[in-house]
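Ticket 4471: requesting a sanity check on a complex prediction with zinc ion. Repro inputs:
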Amino acid sequence: MTTRRQFVQSLPAFAVAAQVALDNDAAPAAQNAAAPVAGHFHPKGKAPSEFTKEVLRKAKQALPFDDTRDFEEQRRGLVARMPEMQIKNDTGGVAWDMTRFQFLDQQDEFDSVHPSMHRIGQLNNNYGLYEVVPGIYQVRGIDLAQTTFVRGKTGWIVFDCLVTADAMRAAWKLFQEHKGEGLPVTAVVYSHSHGDHWGGVRGVVNEADIRAGKVQIIAPRDFMAYSISENVFAGNAMNRRMFYQYGVLLPVSPYGYVTQGLGHGISRGTSGLIAPTRIVEKDIEEFEVDGVRMIFQNTPNTEAPSEMNTYIPDRQALWIAENVCATLHNLYTLRGALVRDALNWSKYINEALYRFGQEAVVMFGAHHWPRWGNGRIQEILRGQRDLYAHFNNQVLHLANQGVTVNQIHNVYELPKSLQQRWDCRGYHGSVPHNARAVVNRYLGYWDCNPATLIPLSPEDSAPLYVEMMGGAEKIIAKARGLHDRGDYMLASEILDKLVHAEPKNQVAKDLLADVFEQIGYQQENPGLRNSFLAGAYELRTGVPEGASPKSSGPDVIRAMSTELFLDFLGIRMDSRKAEGMRFTMNLITPDNGEKFLVELENATLTNLPGFLAGKPDLTLTINRSDLEQTMTGAKTLEAQIKDGTAKVEGDVSILAKLAATMVDFDPRFEILPGTRGREELLHADAFEAVPGKTIPE
Ligand SMILES: [Zn+2]
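Returned structure tokens:
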């Protein structure tokens, strides 16, 4: 037995998990139409079919491969390659392993990889220190995002800090060896609230220097609120879904994980968060940072809820954050998030175009490579502006004519001019899943067909389908025929019913895995490919006993507001265990002057900041700094009461009752039928905050 935290921390980000013992010992041996292919990481893995190869051949012909400007820009300004192909982390493990991606440069094409995905994978093989313009440098290719160093008067201003301190330290070392002149970091600018842009901050600055006023940390409006909160409430589900979108378990291989579009992947090691010392509050703010004039443009509710661009007028250099990348970005991210506002996003790009883009001579961002020359910058900004606006406008145009969330991805198309632009190809967002997102944002999940309004659960409706279709053997025979004709979506449709009706039917699961695999090979988009291949993997092997990046560290817990913590306890509480319970509790945290009225009633836990009940059943007084000991699991609340760190007045037994209702979420829940392993996780401490890891994007 392991604890959730041990489990999450033990997981290899990209390794194959050990074979899982499944509850399907009685299932007949798999018999598949196609034979396993040599060189595939999985014993049941298949080669791409002729149909799949044809899809990839056609894609290659349709795309503008003679436009190689991205490769020129990606190579430009190389100062030094990173000498080590593997970067070690604190604990002796590997933070980053570039050897895995070298295969992408060793062949012109792979028949199991979409040519456009292969292309972005090759572009992501940049790995080293680059000059953007004199005085501005980037270390690229050692994490999902990159880090940028801008020369200030007395030192270096860092734009974004990667996911882990380990990767960030390596970046800083490489930079100092070539261009850093031994000067210190004088400021850090966080471009936005996603974890791949701040998690490595402790690799270049320490808290003492910040307290001493030597280093300033600048962030967009509402940064702290969103850096944590976006990933807490549904954090465990997001973690689980990252197995799919980010292919966490898939080995790097032409048959598995290839790249992640925004970068090759996520570094492994320690993430931290240091709170900003200066927030850019106004829409547009201008001030000097270490002697460099900067104009900050807040761009809320674009790629992230809290984000900002920065213009450096004296160098005519535009930092475009993650608002513009060399790809179509996610309007909906498959790991799960609120749907983003495409129109708002487009408007902020348009503002950057007219506010800064008329004179900028270089544009650089948080992922991918810079664009040089005003013509090129305008070309990219205009295309990206229209890309997001087109999604909003044309999807809603179609929705207003009755096209539903369940049809839009088969109807909506980008205009030809945008289809032919590499920076608008779907390496992170995809056209189909983004189109569905726009409908979902405005109209929600329902297609307005009463039959889908309160549908049966798939496992409840599937047995009737299977019965009416004449049973498992007929479905498998039909599905095999569809598979053999390359009709993978149709095969998936009926096999999905069968595996829901018969979760132990390994023949059905193996055939569905073969179907998913072919659909996966055909995808241009890494999130879609990974999702289908992860589905195939789990159908063949079961839900992994090991996987997923490291869970959040103490910094992240510390950054969680007490209100958010209490809200999350309300989510962790199994309401069914709280039937009939009732109490009112005051929580006072004297060191930060906060107070909360917490009530359990109607099997629902609520809290109200700033209020206290007149006659509470219990008053709990504990400094916020001590409460964090409990939130991180370092010391139980019980122990803190016992040693007097926490003071209680009233009926202390309600804490034990509340603790008994808490459930620890298991990050290995079953997604596809009949794939769950056996091992149960041990319960975490009752009041430990378990918000999952910081989630990059
Ligand atoms: Zn990012």
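Notes from triage: The pocket of zinc ion is lined by residues 145, 194, 196-197, 262, 322, 366-367, 696-697 (CB under 6 Å). Leaving this open until the requester confirms.
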